[in-house]
Design goal:
alpha+beta, outer membrane lipoprotein receptor (LolB), chain A, 6 helices, disordered N terminus, disordered C terminus
Length: 261
């Protein structure tokens, strides 16, 4: 995902405000066909874009992330802040052990409990990944995802891919709408135009070398247009890697938005 944490651009914000203004029914009421006399179902893309904007507007969130794949299991948990402040503080566990990942004003630091430390900035954050090797470069997106507003990732998914509704599910005691879709790699990373040509080429080359053409996504949106969970599934030559991000602590745009029609 593009490495910047930033508020929505004016055009994006205006578009999402328009989407929100036309949403008068339950986010869970999104069947393929409408019911005569009832509000029109909300398209999945609209639901996800509205949730992405709500999270972006909140300026902060707690995330709990688990990644499982051929390389093993990784975890991370902590808080992200974006907009007026660019900060993050997360505990992480990866192949090198337990550590602390922090961001402050664009500087990214990863310090392990045994004293080893790595330093980068947003443009080179992937070099902190144990899989990056000495040459650095894109390493699959683990570090970038940890320091990126999840709403920005959800926005790119909605813009670049196709989404379908799987109905309502329980997420931590809350009924959430579950959406599933996929995005071609090139369209996903080019959705917001934030990666320069060289950077984009390097990212696309990594996925091509690993036999990945599309990325599969699951998103859960709860009452108040809250993005509750984001799951990325990448399948390539070496197997399947699943990264699940639980989102909490973000402000709700309207506590009754998903409860009324």
């Amino acid at each position: 995902m593009p490495p910047a944490l930033r508020p929505a651009a004016p055009a994006r914000a205006a578009a999402l405000l328009l989407l929100g203004a036309t949403t008068g029914c339950s986010l869970l009421a999104a069947p393929a066909t409408g019911i005569p006399g009832q509000p029109a179902p909300v398209p999945p893309k609209q639901v996800v874009l509205t949730a992405a904007q709500a999270l972006d507007d909140s300026g902060t969130a707690r995330i709990d992330v688990v990644q499982e794949g051929p390389a093993g299991r990784r975890t991370a948990s902590g808080t992200l802040t974006w907009g007026a402040r660019d900060e993050a503080a997360l505990t992480v566990t990866d192949e090198l052990g337990a550590g602390r990942l922090t961001v402050r004003d664009g500087a990214v630091d990863l310090a392990y409990q045994d004293g080893r430390a790595k330093h980068a900035d947003r443009a080179t954050a992937e070099s902190l990944d144990p899989a990056a090797g000495a040459a650095g470069g894109w390493a699959g997106g683990w570090t970038t995802a940890l320091i990126t507003n999840p709403g920005s990732r959800a926005y790119a998914v909605a813009q670049a891919g196709t989404l379908g509704s799987l109905g309502g599910e329980d997420v931590a005691g809350t009924t959430a709408a579950h959406y599933r879709g996929s995005t071609p790699v090139a369209e996903y990373f080019g959705a917001e135009g934030e990666l320069g040509p060289d950077r984009l080429a390097a990212v696309l080359d990594w996925y091509q070398r690993h036999g990945v053409k599309t990325i599969d996504w699951d998103l859960w949106v709860g009452p108040g247009s809250r993005l509750l969970r984001l799951r990325e599934t990448v399948t390539g030559d070496t197997g399947t890697t699943v990264t699940t991000t639980e989102v909490s602590g973000a402000a709700s745009s309207d506590p009754t938005a998903a409860a009324t029609g």
